């Protein structure tokens, strides 16, 4: 068997950010590769079919990612920085029945948590300083000449640099003309959103005081018609994630830091009509999400939780394993899939399940899982066959 060479690493492909179309057959994902000559990463959006296993490239911008499928499955939105000298990130609309992608809007603060409300309107988060015009793109001074005025902490962010007082703000936008409308019912630094099944309300997670309570985030439910917001819980709870079950019920990931910062978060079922919050299966002390570290992922993804038919499907970390579990609103848990390596992300539509997985000696690829049978759908890293890899040995320690 051959040994792995340093230059072989340039052949490696990472895949992730999976999304199944409403038809339950087709899907999109992001593939990331390395450009040795330009010394940079390239990412593009691909599509695939779970029945015939065929995959094909959809975009060629080289900086494309974060695809979001429209409710009718006829188009996708994605974020890109196609211009090398771009002063912001662009949101593009790609019709899947044919035609080129169209630039909807470019914003210096970028786009995150892009969510369809209907076929013509989306919600999203962009970052800008309070009072700053998010649509105004100014020329930046060179880093060596720029003067930073620091008014509050934190003033730097890992991978971003100086934050310049920028925080997340929530906006509504028409796709036809890019017209933006701020939603100001919730303040602070907005981190993520989730739109209700009927698109009448949105769950908002925000850090309200990043100086005094930097690790505490609040959950609000905002009525999109009236603009009114309702806070869920109080200052004793910090929220990480929220997924709608019905128009009046949500599953939320929360923590009370009972054991300090390393306290595992737990699931809460929230009834919005009765305002009741019920912790679920907290005695199992599960870590909801994937906490396994890896330097060969390459594709970030928010698809670690999804509600299907009233059950919360979530990745959980259990020692050296990543499991995909399903939980009902009574806290009863079923295991759907178990990996001896890492399940990075997944999506479910009906009985169709899609996931990206890797082990310590098998590279990241996409698989389908139907009735317990796993099928490999991509082979971007097939070049690694015949290469000898060292298999690491596990060990355990007892925490105090």
From TrEMBL:
Identify a single GO molecular function assigned to this protein. Answer: aminopeptidase activity
User: Is-annotated flag, keyword Lipid metabolism?
Assistant: no
* The keyword Protease is annotated on this UniProt entry: yes
**Per the record, a Pfam family?**
PD40
Q: Which domain of life is it from?
A: Bacteria
InterPro entries, from UniProt? 6-blade_b-propeller_TolB-like, WD40
Kindly state which keywords UniProt assigns to this record, in alphabetical order: Aminopeptidase, Hydrolase, Protease
Q: Which Gene3D superfamilies match?
A: TolB, C-terminal domain
* Similarity comment: Belongs to the TolB family.
The name this protein goes by in its record: Dipeptidyl aminopeptidase/acylaminoacyl peptidase
Q: Which lineage do the record's taxonomy fields give for this organism? A: Bacteria, Thermotogati, Thermotogota, Thermotogae, Kosmotogales
């Amino acid at each position: 068997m051959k040994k792995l060479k340093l230059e072989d690493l340039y052949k490696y492909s990472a895949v992730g950010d999976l999304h199944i179309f409403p038809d339950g057959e087709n899907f999109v994902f992001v593939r990331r590769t390395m450009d040795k000559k330009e010394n940079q990463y390239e990412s593009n959006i691909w599509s695939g079919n779970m029945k015939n296993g065929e995959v094909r490239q959809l975009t060629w911008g080289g900086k494309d990612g974060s695809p979001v499928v429209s409710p009718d499955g006829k188009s996708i939105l994605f974020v890109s920085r196609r211009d090398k000298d771009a002063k912001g990130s662009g949101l593009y609309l790609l019709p899947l029945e044919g035609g080129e992608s169209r630039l909807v809007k470019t914003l210096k603060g970028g786009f995150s948590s892009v969510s369809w409300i209907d076929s013509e309107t989306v919600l999203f988060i962009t970052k800008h300083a309070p009072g700053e015009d998010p649509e105004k793109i100014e020329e930046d001074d060179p880093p060596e000449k720029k003067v930073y005025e620091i008014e509050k902490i934190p003033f730097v962010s890992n991978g971003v640099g100086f934050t310049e007082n920028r925080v997340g703000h929530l906006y509504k936008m028409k796709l036809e003309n890019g017209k933006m409308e701020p939603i100001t019912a919730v303040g602070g630094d907005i981190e993520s959103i989730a739109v209700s099944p009927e698109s009448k309300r949105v769950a908002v997670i925000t850090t309200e005081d990043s100086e005094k309570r930097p690790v505490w985030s609040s959950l609000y439910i905002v009525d999109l018609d009236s603009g009114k917001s309702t806070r869920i819980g109080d200052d004793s709870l910090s929220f990480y994630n929220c997924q709608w079950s019905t128009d009046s019920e949500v599953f939320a990931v929360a923590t009370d830091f009972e054991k300090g910062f390393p306290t595992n978060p737990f699931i809460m079922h929230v009834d919005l009509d009765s305002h009741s919050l019920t912790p679920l299966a907290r005695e199992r002390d599960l870590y909801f999400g994937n906490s396994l570290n890896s330097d060969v992922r390459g594709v970030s993804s928010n698809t670690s939780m999804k509600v299907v038919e009233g059950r919360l499907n979530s990745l959980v970390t259990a020692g050296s394993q990543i499991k995909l579990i399903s939980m009902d609103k009574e806290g009863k848990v079923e295991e759907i899939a178990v990996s001896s390596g890492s399940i990075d992300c997944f999506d479910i539509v009906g009985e169709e399940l899609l996931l990206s997985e890797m082990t310590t000696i098998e590279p990241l690829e996409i698989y389908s899982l139907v009735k317990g049978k796993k099928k490999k759908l991509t082979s971007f890293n097939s070049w690694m066959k015949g290469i000898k890899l060292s298999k690491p040995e596990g060990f355990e320690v007892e925490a105090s």
